[in-house]
Automatic annotation (TrEMBL):
GO molecular function terms listed in the Swiss-Prot or TrEMBL record: oxidoreductase activity
SUPFAM superfamilies: NAD(P)-binding Rossmann-fold domains
Annotated protein name in UniProt: NAD(P)-binding protein
Record has Glycoprotein as a keyword: no
InterPro entries: NAD(P)-bd_dom_sf, NmrA-like, NmrA/Isoflavone_reductase-like
Keywords associated with the record: NADP, Oxidoreductase
Superkingdom, taxonomy of origin: Eukaryota
Ranges of residues in domain NmrA-like: 56-274
Amino acid sequence: ILLLGAGELGTAILSHLAKHPALSATRLTVALRPSTVADPSSSRLAALRSLAGPSTQQLSFAGLDLGAADAKAALVKVIRDVEAEVVIVCTGYAGSAAGAQVLVAEAVLEAGGVVKRYFPWQWGGDYDAIGPEVAGGLMAEQYAVRTVLREKAEAAGVEWTIVSTGIFMSFVFEEWVGVVEGLGEALKTGRREAVGERVTVRGFGGWGTKLTLTDVQDIGKVVADLVVDPLGERNDRGGSVVYAAGQTVTYGELADVVEKVVGPETKVVREEWTAEYLRAELEKDPENGLKKYQLMFGFPKGISWDKEKTINALRGIETVEVEQWLREKLG
């Protein structure tokens, strides 16, 4: 198994792969920046070995720079060198060069003689429903990845699985995103007493807009389960799209949870940012990536689905809901 990247999501997936009993003899390779891999005393490598636990002897690292001119050829070589039958992409589109996700998909298909199964970076919305043009084309590349897979994967002999997870639960509480402001320091330190006197919760698109939130640890559980127990049928031109969810809530329900958890000592201020307001803000600054995200998070399609129909519900995989997640993070 080859993992590309080991950030918040990659470490969660690595952890659950490493501790799954059915994968105890499976070789795991994590592709990281060449400078990280070149330093054997790197604290980053030590942390990943620690995370892998007893599977450390099955863990190795490969240097890979997806921003390099020869990135595609380099990735094909890594795949062939480690004989990766499963490739899982954990390098997010936000921090990647333009076109990197399509490049990765094409490299995986080129190595189709080795790769049997592929999990692309599609951990997020339903990009078929969102489409390539919403929010100034924010997810055009994600949409393009699906097109490449549907057109070429079957002929390459690569089975692809897209796991739509909604928004990472931690992401919606990032101060800079603008949904919840005032909990940043408390969440960072795990100190409930660091919660201030005022917290702001914003409803993008209106308080009734729904969003699906999933913790990265739960995504790790789902991926490990799918690696061990693949889907029985490929119902979408050589692959499948499945859905995961920790909880689907409206922005109004999210505000209720925040208010319940922080208690009466903290004033929760609610601000509704309508779709019209979000569109107008983006029109003022059309290249602003944050405003594109905010508009997409207020979009009525592609960012929510019923938990009862998800792969975790169908397989009995327990997932964390917002209130539990927030209480645990606040200590």
